[in-house]
Amino acid sequence: MSVNLGELATLFNCELSGDSNAKISHVATLSSATSGSISFFANKNYKDQLQSTSASAVILQSQDAKDCSVAKLISTNPYLTYAQIANFLHPVKQHKPGIHKSAVISPSSIISKTAHISALVVIGEKSKIGPGVYIGPGCNIGNSCCIGKDSKLMKRVTLDKNVNLGARCIVHPGAVLGGDGFGNARTENGWFKVPQLGGVDIGDDVEIGCNTTIDCGSIGNTIIENGVRIDNLIQIGHNVLIGEHTAIAASTAIAGSAIIGKRCLLAGQVGIVGHIKICDDVNIGGAAVVTKDIKEPGSYSGSIPAEKDSKWKRTIAKFRNL
Amino acid sequence: MSVNLGELATLFNCELSGDSNAKISHVATLSSATSGSISFFANKNYKDQLQSTSASAVILQSQDAKDCSVAKLISTNPYLTYAQIANFLHPVKQHKPGIHKSAVISPSSIISKTAHISALVVIGEKSKIGPGVYIGPGCNIGNSCCIGKDSKLMKRVTLDKNVNLGARCIVHPGAVLGGDGFGNARTENGWFKVPQLGGVDIGDDVEIGCNTTIDCGSIGNTIIENGVRIDNLIQIGHNVLIGEHTAIAASTAIAGSAIIGKRCLLAGQVGIVGHIKICDDVNIGGAAVVTKDIKEPGSYSGSIPAEKDSKWKRTIAKFRNL
Amino acid sequence: MSVNLGELATLFNCELSGDSNAKISHVATLSSATSGSISFFANKNYKDQLQSTSASAVILQSQDAKDCSVAKLISTNPYLTYAQIANFLHPVKQHKPGIHKSAVISPSSIISKTAHISALVVIGEKSKIGPGVYIGPGCNIGNSCCIGKDSKLMKRVTLDKNVNLGARCIVHPGAVLGGDGFGNARTENGWFKVPQLGGVDIGDDVEIGCNTTIDCGSIGNTIIENGVRIDNLIQIGHNVLIGEHTAIAASTAIAGSAIIGKRCLLAGQVGIVGHIKICDDVNIGGAAVVTKDIKEPGSYSGSIPAEKDSKWKRTIAKFRNL
User: Measured between CB atoms, which of C183, C215, C302 is closest to A306?
Assistant: First the structure.
């Protein structure tokens, strides 16, 4: 696909500075861009690359236009405009409806005629696959699951049981939703397993990363609200609630029954203790451990940056002797 | 299923306070309970909910009875009694013996006539599947594995090779047991892979969470003793030994050849350095990093709770200048 | 297999001290060794075991020979010599070329005649499987992937899309390569997904552990250079670059666009912030969090070792009041 720069400006509501007839065929980074590329500038660290880019055009904020000698699309949110243009120039392939002959589907489940079920998929009992849904190869859907309109399960996703997924969700390979929560009652002879009877209730427009695990509720459901974004290798314990539009970066762990507010940002490797409550609009820095309720919006941190061993050893020794 | 409260009291050895003819049909949380629900009280934070619950009955300790206006089952261990009653009211579906026609099984492996092998399972060479075993859809069992009586591998579990699983174990989706340990010898031209020749030896009544990885021994076996409980996304390196009835919460990592005692509790995101030894009856707090032997039972911690950025930045600056 | 000790000395270029006709059939640890075993000594903590071993021979450095009363192979790098001898005594089974009838392969993909494709493998469109490649059962390879000569994908590996794997790589079960990176642009109504259009480019002789995730680039590729070793449950974000012969231990997370140098060692649970650069020959200690560029080779640390709760609480209180 190739399109005029002027057309992009109109379609995506940007001010154009430069040749409206320039042909744009693909997106590229500032440094790898060539003729036909459109790039974007949103991180000041890459200012050198902005000045030297060979892109045919760059999407940027008006105040950065002076540092750019090629054609420009001026946007108040260059990263968003970039994403929209990238979608437009590189559309995702649409899948045809149908069920691959190698899929194994219980007759008690209902599959929409417009859903795509790939090779070697398993679907258990009493599940419902909605219209336009894409189930990638090797996915494994258990009993009593429901997948909403136009959602996509990429390769080898597992929905263990009682998982409700809303519309337009994307779940990436290896994610496991609805596995048993970690519930163990002590006895004199060791642990007694506490039955995990609930499910997972996921809203619309949620994205879940590779090899992430979201446990079912022990009683009642684990809840992920609309628009939440969850990265890779994240643990979400039973009966956690994640509020709307919260985003969580990789390798974070959220213990059971924690409640995370709306529009929060959790960086990578964060730990959230069980049964605590974090209010709306909270940012948690990388690798921080949150051990009690947070009642005030704002930014919170808790990890100590690495240092050279020689310096670190001295500091630690003094820390121990505080 | 519906049962009289008096019958539950007798079956599970509780003192009854209230109407023995009350009909109980299901478990519920204190806050979501309705008529027919039985709930439990074991966490003081939920005292308000105890006082206002609409449950038909609550399982609790005698000293909490005064705060509860509905019928009560008095137990010394309410969480355990709850778990037992939940099992009774919500029994797990039993699977019929048999092998799904899409399973691919080496003729050199032996499958008990009472085992259930689900769709799209692969079983390699010289493995043994014991009586009453359930192998869920998409599980992948390698060579020379042995699965004991009544164990359950939920969906899409991988046993790579040389894994011995005892009786009544449960392994959740995405777990990988018996993958190669991380062994690399330095050479002038980079790393030389050290062969990982051992296996994994898992006792009875062990539960292993979603997407957890337990490596095979490099020589000899990685050992998980009876009754151990392992949550999701946990890494257990080669030749680790985990003692009986130890429980490990999510996202913890245990490096190679570490020895963990019996009845230990490791909270989430804990790190255990390789080749160290932790004695019996040790509790490790969340996100703590254990770098040397622990020889005395008790509780150990090592993570600093998150704080507001403004406070944290000042504290860190002073820490650096200790 | 059984071989004379003298033959091993010659084959692996060691000085022999002891009976060259001793029969060696297998490797063992110092403590579990019996007649016919060859063991190695490389960790001073096991000196007691060296003195009391029942091995037929031990591989060690010349300065340790005095502590060993059985036959010896003297090597400057005993661990490497051990690995080479273990490979020799316990050779890996070779797989015959061929495609299992249950595999589902797009006709637009090209499979070498000498590759082995196991049961229930899926291969998408326009992918290439090179000579001598082993694809284990349940692997799931997407569109436009390329697997180089003699590489092995063990059970249930996922290559999502646009993954180039070099020669002689090993990928362990549950690993997901080429999943979408975590890219989200803020809007007034929540997050807008940023298309992840790149791939993953992996060199030769790379090993990747169980349930590790390596995201595709957002534009351009995520790059893993030759000889890199990556353990289990590691997150590698989009557009990361890992330099040659770097080794990364389990549960580490590397955020997007970070650049890691050559010959670095990252211990377990390390966190690397996005968009930073670590130079060659850097060692990072366990659970350390690296928040800015490292420009000088050497060792860096950042985690505080766990302590008894009583001591820890006092220290934390003082830390907060610094």
Answer: C302
B232: three-class secondary structure by DSSP = coil
Residues of C designated as active site: 238
The alpha helices in C70-182, defined as continuous H runs, are 78-89
* Cβ-Cβ contacts under 8 Å, A197 against chain B: 27, 86, 90
**Do residue B308 and residue A298 have CB atoms under 8 angstroms apart?**
yes
Shortest CA gap A260–chain B (Å): 15
Distance in Å, alpha carbon of B196 to nearest chain A alpha carbon: 24
Closest-approach residue (CA) in chain B for C262: B190
DSSP β-bridge partners for residue C207: C170, C229
CA pair distance A253, A272, nearest whole angstrom: 6
CA distances from A189 to A65, B227, B244 (A): 71, 9, 10
Beta strands, E only, A199-288? 200-202, 207-208, 213-215, 222-224, 229-230, 235-236, 241-242, 247-248, 253-254, 259-260, 265-266, 271-272, 277-278, 282-284
Q: Quickly state the pLDDT bin for A90 (edges 50, 70, 90).
A: very high
CB atoms within 10 A of CB C101: 7
- pLDDT score, position A321: 82
Q: Which of 191-230 (C) contact A at CB < 8 A?
A: 191-195, 197, 211, 213, 215, 219-220
Nearest CA among A73, A95, A94, A93 for reference residue A85: A73
Q: Is C13 on the interface with A (CB under 8 A)?
A: no
Structure tokens at C213: 């995730």
**Residue A13 burial by Cβ neighbours in a 10 Å radius (0-12, 13-18, 19+):** exposed
User: What is the SS3 assignment for A316?
Assistant: helix
What is the reported pLDDT for C216?
Answer: 98
Looking at residue C93, its pLDDT comes to 86
pLDDT for B188 = 92
- Mean pLDDT over C175-199 rounds to 97
Q: How many residues does chain B have?
A: 322
What is the tens place of the pLDDT at every residue in C260-271? Answer: 999 999 999 999
Q: Roughly what angle, to the nearest 10 degrees, separates helices A309-320 and B309-320?
A: 100
Chain A stretch 288-317, residues whose beta carbon is closer than 8 A to a beta carbon of chain B: 288-292, 296, 298-302, 304-305, 307, 315
Q: Are A298 and A282 in contact (CB under 8 A)?
A: yes
Q: Is B34 exposed, middle or buried (0-12, 13-18, 19+ CB in 10 A)?
A: exposed
Q: Is the pLDDT of residue B132 over 90?
A: yes
Q: How far apart, in Å, are the Cα atoms of A293 and each of A26, A223, B48, B154, B268?
A: 46, 19, 18, 35, 18
Task: Give one DSSP letter per residue of A16-44, joined into a string.
Answer: EES-TT-EE-EE--TTT--TTEEEE---G
Interface check for B104 against chain A (CB to CB < 8 A): the answer is no
Backbone angles phi, psi at B260, to 5 degrees: -110, 135
A84 contact residues in C (CB cutoff 8 A):
192
Report the predicted TM-score, pTM, of the whole model to 2 decimal places.
Answer: 0.97
Nearest CB neighbour to B104, from listed C28, C102, C229: C102
Residue A320, pLDDT score: 82
Q: Is the CB of residue B251 less than 8 Å away from at least one CB of chain C?
A: yes
The whole-angstrom separation of Cα A135 and Cα A141 is 9
Cα separation, B259 vs B237, in Å, equals 11
Cα–Cα–Cα angle for A85, A86, A90, rounded to 5 degrees: 120
ipTM: 0.97
- The answer to whether residue C11 scores a pLDDT higher than 90 is yes
